[in-house]
Amino acid sequence: TFEHVDIYSSKNIRVGKERLLHHVVIPYRLHKASRGFTLYQRLDA
């Protein structure tokens, strides 16, 4: 219900009931990283 997602409501969201998790694999790998940026490189099949 809306009460579960309302940030001002005291009702909780439970994983597996109101919150569903979907694992997704994204074809990118970390190429370079610094304090101000992160660069990813696409993996070609």
Description:
The protein has one domain (2-42). Strands 1-2 form a two-stranded antiparallel sheet. It has one helix at 2-5; strands at 28-33, 38-42. Helices cover 9% and strands 24% of the residues. The protein is built from 1 helix and 2 strands. Strand 1 and strand 2 form a beta hairpin. With 45 residues, the chain is mainly beta.
The fraction of residues assigned to DSSP E strands is 15-25%
Largest sheet: 2 strands, antiparallel
Bulk shape: elongated
Arithmetic mean of pLDDT:
87
Number of strands: 2
| Radius of gyration using CA atoms only | 18 Å
Order of helices and strands: HEE
Q: DSSP helix count?
A: 1
Query: Total domains, how many?
Result: 1
Strand order of the largest sheet: 1-2
Task: Report how far the terminal alpha carbons are from each other.
Answer: 42 Å
Which percent range fits the helix content? Answer: under 10%
Q: List unreliable stretches of 5+ residues.
A: none
Structural class based on helices, strands and sheet pairing:
mainly beta
